[in-house]
Automatic annotation (TrEMBL):
InterPro entries found in the cross-reference section: Asp_de-COase-like_dom_sf, MoPterin_dinucl-bd_dom, Mopterin_OxRdtase, Mopterin_OxRdtase_4Fe-4S_dom
Record family assignment: Belongs to the prokaryotic molybdopterin-containing oxidoreductase family.
A single cellular component GO annotation: cell envelope
Enzyme class per UniProt: oxidoreductase
PANTHER family for the chain: DMSO REDUCTASE CHAIN A, TUNGSTEN-CONTAINING FORMYLMETHANOFURAN DEHYDROGENASE 2 SUBUNIT B
Record key words, sorted: 4Fe-4S, Iron, Iron-sulfur, Metal-binding, Oxidoreductase
Organism per entry: Variovorax paradoxus
Region annotation Disordered: where it falls in the sequence: 1-22
UniProt protein name: Sulfite-oxidizing enzyme SoeA
Domain 4Fe-4S Mo/W bis-MGD-type positions: 22-83
Superkingdom of the organism of origin: Bacteria
EC number, UniProt record: 1.8.5.3
Length: 981
C-alpha cells in the first residue's frame, strides 16, 4: 500500500512486473531519442482497446539494463499528444502553403495520387523525385527505395547532424563513435570527453561514466559549456567553439616531441612507416608502391597493400607487408630516403612530425583560450597514462599476417566526442586530428581505449561506392549503386561530364566530395534556385525543415511557398510524412500521418544502425504494443506499398505481383545477399540459426519472446584489435559485414584526400575540378590533419560579432518532438540564452532580462540568464524548444512560442563563394558537406524599454489540422501494478 511521505519505494524498478487481470506488459524499443533503449510498456484494456499506462526500462535489455531517462518514461505523453495527426490530408485548392488549410482524404486516394505522380516522374526523369529523411533509423529501406526508383536525390539526417564525426573517423581508423564504436570505460583510467552534449548515447553513457568514476577513473571534459556529463567531470577545460582541432594538433606536438607515442603500434598497425613520394610529379604526396602485382596481398581493391617502408636494420626499401612487419625488420618512422629510381620519399609519420612542429601549446593557447601549460600537462597525462599505466590482458590473438600475440596490450586512455566537433565547417579535419591523436597513443580497439562495434571496422575506404554515373539515370530503371557511399578518389564523384553536380543537394560533387550522408540542409534552397535543375516532388519524412531543421529558417519558409513566373510553386509538390502537426506540415501539399514508435514495427539492423556492444553484434526491433491511432500508417508500410504499386524490381515478382505483404514480411524475407537479412537472430526455417541463415517466417515472434533484442557474444579472442585480428576478419566476412578479410591499417596519412588535391593542382590525369574550386580543394583536402578557422569567419567582421553562438539539446528533450510533451514541458517550457556574467554585464544586460542576439544574417529577441558554466566568448541555448505559435497543438500564446526562440534565425545555409554560378556555396564543411551549425558569430545588446516581452520573430498562429487529437487523453496514475483513478 502506498503511503504518503513513506521512505519505502513505491516499487522496485528491477522487479519483474506483475500483471493484473486487466493489465499486461509488452517489451519494445524506445524511440524518444536515438539511444534505442529497451523498455517495458504497461497496458490496461480501455474503452477502445489497450491503452498505455506506464513505461519503464527493461532490466533484461543489454543496452540500458533497465535504466530509463525522463524522455523514455514520458513516451506515454507522446502517444496521446494533442498534435497527433490521424488521417491523410490534402492542401485545400487555392490555399497558400504555410496557411495549414487541409481537407481529409482517404489513404487510397493518397496512394493513387502518389503512384500516378511518381510513376510519371520515374517513367520520364527519375531525378526529379527527391526523398530526404530526418531522424531515420531505416536507411537500408529508404535508400533501397530511392535506388529502386532510380533517383540519386536521397539523403538522411547525418549531413546536418554529425557526418564529420562518421566520415572523419571512418576514413582514418575504419569506425567512429556512438553506434559503431566508443570508449572502453570498463578498463580505462583516464577519460577525455570533447564536444559532447548529454543526449549522445544517453543512458549507456551515464551507466558507464558512473561505473568508471566509482572505480577511481579520472574524467576530463573539454567543452565551451559545462552541462550534462561535463557537470560531473573531475575537471572542466573550457574551450572556444571550433578550435578543438588546434588543441589536438598541439597535443600531437607535445606527445611526439616528448616521445610519448606507441612506436610498435604505429609501425605494425598504421601507415605511419609507409613511404610518401616527395617529388613534384603526378604521384606527389601519394604512397610509393611496388608495381609487381605478385608482391604483397592485394588489399581491398581500391587501396592495395603494396606500399613500401624503409628498413633501418638493412638500410633498404621493403614491401610494407609482409616484409616490413617481419621479425628483424625495423620500419623507419622518420627520415628522408631515396628509392632505386631516384624518387625522394619519407615515412608519412615524418610528415606528421613536420606538420605539428609549429603547433606549439602557445600557438594553440591563442586560438583555443586554454593556457599553454594546461595543454602541456594534458598531453603528458594522456601519454603517461596510455604508456606507463598500460597493462596486458591474458588474451591471445593472431594478426592478419599470421603472427601470434600471446597477450593483448591495453592503452587505458579513452576519448569520446560528438557534434561539438562535427558541426563546424572545419570539423572533418578536426575529427581526423582526434583520430590520429588516439592512434599515436595506440588506443584503437585496445582495452581501455576506443573500441569498435560490429559491423565495424570497415575498410579504409569502405567498399560502398555512391552512385556516380549520370548515364544510369534512365526511365523505370534502378540505379546501379546506392545514392550514398564513400568515394575513394575523384573518379567516384557524382558529377556530370562538365563537372556539375548530379544531385540536387550537390553531395559528392567538387563542392563537397566526401559527403557520405548528403546535404539535407541544402535541398530546399537548391531546388528553389533550380541549381542544378528543377525537381518535381520532394518527399520529407520526419524532418522539420520549416523550423528547427533548417538554417536560415525564415528564408526557407518563404522558399517553400515561392512561385515562378507562371504562378507554379518552385517545388511543385511537397509531401510531408510525420506523426505530429509540426511547423513543416503547414507547408505540405500532401500529409501522410505516421505512427509512433509504440504502434509500428521497426528494426535496428546490422544493415543500418545496430545497437552492438563491444563484445559482439546486437540488433533489436520494435513491435507494436498498441494499434495505430486513427488512420495512421507506418512510413515503412507506405514505402512498401508505393514500391509495390510502382513495380520496383526488388519488391515485385517477375510476373509483376507483390513480393511482400507489408513491412514485417519484407524484413523477414528480403536478403541483400544469401543468408543475410535485416535481422540476424533466429534465422533458418526453424529459427535455430543466428547471424546468417535462411529466412524464418516466425522471426518476429522470436524477437517478441526475447525482449525484442538479439545479442551475440563473440569469443574473447575476437574482442580486441579487430582491424588486424585474423579470427575476427574471417568471421566478419563470413557473416556478410565485410566484403574482404584484409586488415584495416589506420590512415594517419590519407592518400584518398591527396588524390583530390592532386586533381585540384592539375597534376593528375582524369577528372579535374572547376577552376573556381581548385584552390578550395587544394586547401582543405590535405592528407594530414590541420586546423583552420571556420569558413564563416572569412566573411564576418569579428570585431562587430565577437561571440560564438551554439546550441545543445537538453537531456529531457530531443529535437522538436518533446517540447509538445505534457510532462517534459514542465521541465523546459521555454529556453534562455546562457551567457557568462562578465560578458552579459559588459553588454548591460541583467540576469533574466530581454536582449537582442544579432548575427550578420538575422536577429532574435530572447531572455538571457547568467551562467558561470560557459566560457566568456560563447553564448548558448537549448535547441528546438522555441516553436511557431499554434504548431504542435500548443495553446495560443504558449511559452514555447512567446518566450522560446531558435538560434536558427541567425544562421545562413550559404556563404559567399566567388566563381560559383550563384556566387554562393553551402555553409558546410568543404570535405563532407556537414552543416556548420556552430560557426555563427553574434553580438548581444539589451532590449529597449517598452519593447514587447516576447521572443522575436513571431509567426502567425497555425490552425488545427483536421483530425488531430486536439487534447490529451486522461492518463491514470500507475503504482506497482495497480491502477488508481
Amino acid at each position: 500500500m502506498f503511503s504518503f511521505l513513506s521512505r519505502e519505494p513505491v516499487h522496485d524498478p528491477l522487479d519483474a512486473p506483475t500483471p493484473t487481470a486487466d493489465t499486461q506488459v509488452k517489451t519494445t524499443t524506445c524511440y524518444m531519442c536515438a539511444c534505442r533503449c529497451g523498455i517495458r510498456v504497461h497496458l490496461r484494456e480501455g474503452e477502445h482497446g489497450p491503452e498505455v499506462r506506464y513505461i519503464d526500462g527493461n532490466p533484461e535489455h543489454p543496452l540500458n539494463k533497465g535504466v530509463i531517462c525522463a524522455k523514455g518514461s514520458s513516451g506515454i505523453m507522446k502517444q496521446v499528444s494533442p498534435a497527433r495527426l490521424t488521417q491523410p490530408l490534402l492542401r485545400k485548392a487555392g490555399s497558400e502553403r504555410g496557411a495549414g488549410e487541409f481537407e481529409p482524404i482517404s489513404w487510397e486516394r493518397a496512394f493513387d495520387m502518389l503512384a500516378e505522380r511518381l510513376g510519371k516522374i520515374r517513367a520520364t526523369d527519375p531525378k526529379k523525385f527527391a526523398l530526404f529523411t530526418g531522424r531515420d533509423q531505416m536507411q537500408a529501406l529508404t535508400g533501397l527505395f530511392a535506388r529502386q526508383f532510380g533517383t540519386p536525390n536521397y539523403a538522411a539526417h547525418g549531413g546536418f547532424c554529425s557526418v564529420n564525426m562518421a566520415a572523419g573517423m571512418i576514413y582514418t581508423i575504419g569506425g567512429s563513435f556512438w553506434e559503431f564504436g566508443g570508449p572502453d570505460l570498463d578498463r580505462a583510467k583516464l577519460f577525455v570527453m570533447i564536444g559532447t552534449a548529454e543526449d549522445h548515447h544517453s543512458n549507456p553513457m551515464k551507466i558507464a561514466i558512473s561505473k568508471f568514476k566509482r572505480a577511481g577513473g579520472r574524467f576530463i571534459s573539454i567543452n565551451p559549456v559545462r552541462t550534462g556529463y561535463s557537470a560531473i567531470a573531475d575537471e572542466w577545460i573550457p574551450i572556444k567553439p571550433g578550435t578543438d582541432g588546434a588543441l589536438f594538433m598541439a597535443l600531437l606536438h607535445e606527445l611526439i616531441a616528448s616521445d610519448l607515442i606507441d612506436h610498435a603500434f604505429l609501425k605494425r598497425f598504421t601507415n605511419a612507416p609507409q613511404l610518401v613520394v616527395l617529388d613534384d610529379c603526378e604521384r606527389q604526396g601519394l604512397f610509393a608502391f611496388d608495381p609487381d602485382p605478385t608482391r604483397g596481398p592485394p588489399g581491398d581493391g581500391r587501396n592495395p597493400h603494396n606500399k613500401l617502408v624503409w628498413d633501418l636494420e638493412q638500410g633498404s626499401v621493403k614491401n610494407a607487408y609482409p616484409e616490413g612487419i617481419a621479425d628483424g625488420c625495423d620500419p623507419a618512422l622518420e627520415g628522408h630516403y631515396t628509392l632505386a629510381d631516384g624518387t625522394r620519399v619519407a615515412p608519412s609519420f615524418q610528415l606528421l612530425r613536420d606538420r605539428v612542429a609549429s603547433c606549439t601549446p602557445e600557438w594553440a593557447e591563442a586560438i583555443t583560450g586554454i593556457d599553454a601549460q594546461r595543454i602541456r600537462k594534458l598531453a603528458r597525462e594522456m601519454g603517461e597514462t596510455a604508456l606507463r599505466q598500460a597493462f596486458e590482458l591474458p588474451i591471445a590473438w593472431t594478426d592478419a599476417w599470421g603472427k601470434k600475440h600471446l597477450t593483448t596490450q591495453a592503452r587505458p586512455v579513452a576519448f569520446h566526442a560528438m557534434r561539438g566537433l562535427a558541426a563546424h565547417s572545419n570539423g572533418f579535419q578536426t575529427v581526423r586530428a582526434l583520430a590520429v591523436l588516439m592512434s599515436v597513443l595506440g588506443t584503437i580497439d585496445a582495452p581501455g581505449g576506443f573500441r569498435h562495434k560490429a559491423p565495424y571496422p570497415r575498410h579504409i575506404v569502405p567498399n560502398y561506392r555512391a552512385f556516380n554515373d549520370p548515364g544510369m539515370i534512365q526511365p523505370n530503371t534502378p540505379l546501379n549503386a546506392a545514392p550514398l557511399g564513400f568515394p575513394a578518389n575523384p573518379e567516384e564523384l557524382a558529377i556530370n561530364p562538365d563537372g556539375s553536380p548530379i544531385r540536387i543537394d550537390h553531395a559528392f560533387s567538387w563542392e563537397h566530395p566526401l559527403s557520405a550522408h548528403g546535404l539535407m540542409h541544402n535541398v530546399i534552397t537548391n531546388a528553389v534556385k533550380g541549381d542544378p535543375y528543377r525537381i518535381d516532388t520532394l518527399l520529407i519524412f520526419m524532418a522539420n525543415m520549416a523550423w528547427n531543421s533548417s538554417m536560415n529558417t525564415m528564408a526557407v519558409r518563404e522558399m517553400l511557398n515561392r512561385k515562378d513566373e507562371k504562378g507554379e510553386h518552385m517545388i511543385p509538390f511537397l509531401v510531408v510524412c510525420d506523426a505530429f502537426q509540426s511547423e513543416t506540415v503547414a507547408f505540405a501539399d500532401l500529409v501522410l500521418p505516421d505512427t509512433t514508435y509504440l504502434e509500428r514495427h521497426d528494426v535496428m539492423s546490422m544493415l543500418d544502425r545496430p545497437i552492438s556492444e563491444f563484445d559482439g553484434p546486437v540488433d533489436s526491433v520494435r513491435i507494436p504494443v498498441v494499434p495505430p491511432t486513427g488512420q495512421c500508417k507506418p512510413f515503412q508500410e507506405v514505402l512498401i506499398e508505393l514500391a509495390s504499386r510502382l513495380k520496383f524490381p526488388a519488391f515485385t515478382t517477375p510476373e509483376g505481383g507483390r513480393k511482400f505483404t507489408g513491412y514485417p514480411d519484407f524484413v523477414v524475407n528480403f536478403q541483400p545477399q544469401p543468408g543475410i537479412g535485416f535481422l540476424m537472430g533466429w534465422r533458418g526455417k526453424d529459427g535455430t540459426e543466428h547471424l546468417r541463415g535462411e529466412p524464418n517466417p516466425k522471426q518476429w515472434e522470436a524477437y517478441a519472446q526475447n525482449n525484442c533484442v538479439f545479442q551475440y557474444h563473440m569469443p574473447e579472442t575476437m574482442h580486441y584489435m579487430r582491424n588486424w585480428n585474423r579470427e575476427y576478419l574471417d568471421f566478419a566476412k563470413d557473416k556478410g559485414w565485410r566484403q574482404r578479410n584484409d586488415p584495416v591499417q589506420l590512415a594517419l596519412y590519407s592518400d584518398t584526400l591527396q588524390s583530390f588535391r592532386l586533381a585540384a593542382q592539375g597534376k593528375s590525369p582524369g577528372r579535374q575540378p572547376p577552376d573556381a574550386l581548385r584552390e578550395r580543394i587544394d586547401t582543405y583536402f590535405d592528407p594530414l590533419p590541420f586546423w583552420y578557422p571556420p569558413l564563416e569567419e572569412a566573411s564576418t567582421d569579428l570585431d562587430v560579432y565577437p561571440l560564438n553562438a551554439i546550441t545543445q539539446r537538453p537531456m529531457a528533450m530531443y529535437h522538436s518532438w518533446d517540447s509538445q510533451n505534457a510532462w517534459l514541458r514542465q521541465i523546459h517550457s521555454h529556453n534562455y540564452l546562457h551567457v557568462n556574467p562578465l560578458t552579459a554585464q559588459a553588454a548591460g544586460i541583467a540576469d533574466g532580462g530581454w536582449c537582442w542576439v544579432e548575427s550578420q544574417w538575422g536577429q532574435v529577441r530572447c531572455m538571457l540568464r547568467y551562467s558561470e558554466a560557459v566560457e566568456p566568448g560563447t553564448v548558448w541555448t537549448w535547441n528546438a524548444i522555441g516553436k511557431a505559435d499554434g504548431a504542435w497543438q500548443l495553446a495560443p500564446g504558449a511559452d514555447e512560442a512567446r518566450k522560446g526562440f531558435l538560434l536558427n534565425h541567425l544562421i545562413s545555409e550559404e556563404l559567399p563563394c566567388a566563381g560559383t554560378a550563384s556566387g554562393r556555396i553551402s555553409n558546410s564543411d568543404p570535405v563532407t558537406g556537414q552543416a556548420g551549425w556552430y560557426d555563427v558569430r553574434v553580438r548581444i545588446r539589451p532590449a529597449e524599454p517598452g519593447e514587447p516581452e516576447e521572443s522575436f520573430p513571431q509567426m502567425a498562429s497555425m490552425p488545427s489540422a483536421p483530425g488531430v487529437l486536439g487534447k490529451a487523453a486522461s492518463v491514470l496514475t500507475y503504482f506497482a501494478g495497480r491502477v488508481k483513478k
